[in-house]
Amino acid sequence: MDIYEEILKLRSEGRISSLATIVQCKGSTPQKVGAKMLVRDDGSIFGTIGGGSLEAEVIKAALTVMKDGVPRTVPFALTENHGHLVCGGTVLVYIEPVMAAPHLIILGAGHVGKALATIGKFLGFKVTVVDDREEYANKVNIPDADNIVISDFQNVLSKVAVEKSTYIVIATRGHNHDFEALRAALHTDAEYIGLLGSKRKKSLVLKTLETEGFSQHDINRVIIPVGLPIGSVNPEEIAISIMAQIIQMRNVK
C-alpha cells in the first residue's frame, strides 16, 4: 500500500490526516525534496521525512493543521537540537490537511434518493441511504451507496453517526415519514437539513414544528424546498440542484 492508498482508506473510514511534504532542502539533509509522510489523526505515521526530532516536530505541527484545517509551510533547521540529525541543513515542509470524505445521509430510497446517491458518490461524498423498505434499501437498487440502513425514520439517526459537518436530505415517500425523519434530524448537530417539498409544504412543516415546541433556531435549520431553484423536474435534475446547494454551502464557509 502506498501513501495515497492509505489516504483513501482513512477518508473512507471518516478519519482526517495531514500530508507533510519536503518542498525545499538546503545543505545536508536526511531526505530530499518530494519526501512525504502522512500523519494520522491519532499521531501515527505512514512514510518518513527523516526521523528523529524533525519528524516529531512535524507530527506536532501536522496535528495542529488537522485541528485548524489550514495548510502551512514550516521551516526546520537540522542542528544539534534535532538529536542525531546533526546534518546542518534546513528543510521546508509543506503540511496540508486531508479531511474525511463529507457525509451525505439520504432519508428515502425512492427515485430522488437513488439519483442523489449516485451524484453524491461521484462528487466524493460518503453516502448513507436509509429506508424502511428492504425492497428499496438494497445494493441492487442503490448501487452507489457506501452504507444502506433498513430502519424506521424515527430512530435511524441514533444508529448512524451524525456530525456537525454531515449533510442530511429528507426525501421519503410521504408526509408522515418526512416529519418523523425531520424530527430525528433536528435532534442532531447536522448543519445541513434539507427537505424535499413545495412552498405550500414549507408553510405546513414550519407551523407544525412551531406547534410541537421546536425553537426558532431549529426551525431555521430546515431548508425547504431543498436545492437551488434551477427549474428541476425529474429526479436527476432535482438531485443535481440539491448537490449544487450543498457544494455552494461548503464553499462559502
Describe the protein in words.
The protein is elongated and about 70 Å long. The longest helix is centred in the N-terminal third of the chain and has 17 residues, at 52-68. The protein has seven helices and eleven strands. It is of the alpha/beta class.
Helix count from the secondary structure assignment: 7
Structural class from helices and strands? alpha/beta
Rg, rounded, reads 23 Å
Low-confidence stretches: none
Biggest sheet record: 6 strands, parallel
Spatial strand order of the main sheet? 8-7-6-9-10-11
Average pLDDT reading? 90
Portion in helices: 25-40%
Q: Determine the strand fraction and express it as a percent band.
A: 15-25%
Instruction: Give the N-terminus to C-terminus distance in angstroms.
Output: 34 Å
What form results from the Cα inertia axes?
elongated
H-E string: HEEEHEEEHEEEHEHHEH
Core attributes:
elongated, 253 residues, 7 helices, alpha/beta, 5-stranded antiparallel β-sheet
Task: Give a quick summary of the entry.
This protein has seven helices and eleven strands. The protein has helices spanning 3-12, 52-68, 111-122, 175-186, 199-211, 216-220, 235-251; strands spanning 17-26, 36-40, 45-47, 72-77, 90-98, 103-107, 126-131, 147-150, 167-170, 192-195, 222-223. It has a six-stranded parallel β-sheet, with helices on both faces.
Task: Set down the secondary structure blueprint.
Layout: H1 3-12, E1 17-26, E2 36-40, E3 45-47, H2 52-68, E4 72-77, E5 90-98, E6 103-107, H3 111-122, E7 126-131, E8 147-150, E9 167-170, H4 175-186, E10 192-195, H5 199-211, H6 216-220, E11 222-223, H7 235-251
Parallel strand pairs: 6-7, 6-9, 7-8, 9-10, 10-11
Antiparallel strand pairs: 1-2, 1-5, 2-3, 4-5
Helix pairs in contact: 3-7
